[in-house]
Write a structure and sequence with these properties.
Number of helices: 1
Shape: flat
Mean pLDDT: 89
Strand order of the largest sheet: 1-6-2-3-4-5
Helix content: under 10%
Order of helices and strands: EEEEEEEEEHEEEEEEE
Number of domains: 3
Number of strands: 16
Low-confidence stretches: none
Structural class: mainly beta
Oligomer: single chain
CATH topology of the largest domain: SH3 type barrels
Distance between the termini: 38 Å
Radius of gyration: 19 Å
Length: 186
């Protein structure tokens, strides 16, 4: 299926030059003069090589249609991450490179969507938001709550996000998995 270059997002799989590429980063660039474009960092699924490509914002690219199956993240052994099909209990493993984009927001037992291309697992999609526990953050400074300031907070996965000043260690927060931003306290 073809999509507009501006619709490219991290985690998607594109077919470029006859090869499958996983999008690692996608940035919309608007230069002072000239045409806006998408700066895309991609990794070849087969051999792992990285490539930076600029797509004109009006250009169309081929997004690979993948079969999606709901799965549960079980555990990792350092190099591979193991997932179980919630219906058939079949297990599949994915190398670290294929799940790196999801690691900051993925804990054991997290329900995810694993995408397959010709029965080979290629990608992990997280839910749009996840609930995680704050393990560390700075103390509130008196008067700081009057401003719209945010403070860094470390989550149970090890990721660091910006949270409002009223959040304390032990609080559960909802995080947007696409942007990595705080949504609300749970």
């Amino acid at each position: 299926m073809q999509i507009q270059a501006t619709q490219i997002r991290p985690g998607q799989v594109l077919e470029v030059e006859g090869r499958l590429w996983r999008v690692l980063k996608a940035t919309h660039v608007t230069p002072g003069k000239g045409v806006a474009c998408m700066q895309v960092e991609m990794r070849d699924i087969v051999d792992g090589t990285k490539k930076n490509v600029r797509f004109n914002s009006t250009e169309r690219v081929e997004r690979v249609t993948l079969t999606q199956r709901p799965m549960q993240y079980l555990y990792d052994d350092g190099d591979n991450f193991y997932f179980m099909d919630t219906e058939t209990y079949e297990q599949v493993s994915l190398p670290r490179e294929m799940v790196e984009h999801a690691l900051p927001f993925m804990l054991p037992n997290t329900e995810v969507i694993v995408e397959f291309h010709e029965d080979k697992p290629l990608n992990v999609q997280l839910p749009s938001t996840v609930v995680l526990t704050v393990t560390e953050c700075e103390a509130v400074v008196k008067g700081q709550t009057a401003t719209g300031s945010y403070k860094p907070a470390k989550l149970e996965t090890g990721a660091t996000i910006k949270v409002p000043p009223y959040i304390q260690p032990g609080d559960k927060v909802r995080v947007n998995t696409e942007t990595g931003e705080f949504v609300e306290r749970v």
